[in-house]
């Protein structure tokens, strides 16, 4: 499958999205691009120093929630390089065996991963507040929930639509680590898009793309010059919470809401 092509109306769509594709694969420092008003892609939103700060914060949170056996295993490793000396963001990950990756989500959608729902950021990472401020400026609305999702080198996310009973109309994803490919597949026709997600990129899916397209993160693949060969990737996923009125309506209509559950700081909760 080529990037941003549709098996339904390939030629018309191609003329519409080709210019976008060129921009999408460029690594400009900041650019907002869109092939649909409901999808926005920022290829180089976070600089390398910002990525290092975000990844250090996310790894610190995830690592501290792991079983003691894993924390002990990591203790014997040589000290980490100072952040300022890291030139390839992937160096920040330890080998896969040092992390407690789960084999599969209970619903089978996510393979080889660890994740955490996050309600606070570390307070001891220099520069973090200004990076978070840049991130927050991208959010379409307030009242959000954040979760970190760390894929192992061979981890992947199969096509799915996020539980509509567990979050609102938009999902923002920040990618850190190895470049992976995001695939969006329409549930209404055969339209598909592939978007490379290099480290530091941000994407936002909302409304029609959030509800009518399945998304997946591929382990391997190529799209117009961008290649993914697996590798560890950590995403920061931010979603808007459902307004209480909508939540109440859903509960009445469908009974209790169930969803993908994941490790939360204070326990497990539905997404
Ligand atoms: O990591 C990503 O970019 C997507 C994550 C995802 O599909 C999910 O959390 O439902």
From TrEMBL:
Signal peptide: none annotated. It comes from the Eukaryota. One of its GO terms (molecular function) is 2-oxoglutarate-dependent dioxygenase activity. GO terms for cellular component: mitochondrial matrix. InterPro entries: AlkB-like (IPR027450), AlkB-like_sf (IPR037151), ALKBH7-like (IPR032870). Residues 39-239 form the Alpha-ketoglutarate-dependent dioxygenase AlkB-like domain. SUPFAM superfamilies: Clavaminate synthase-like. One of its GO terms (biological process) is DNA damage response. Transmembrane segments: none annotated. This is Alpha-ketoglutarate-dependent dioxygenase AlkB-like domain-containing protein.
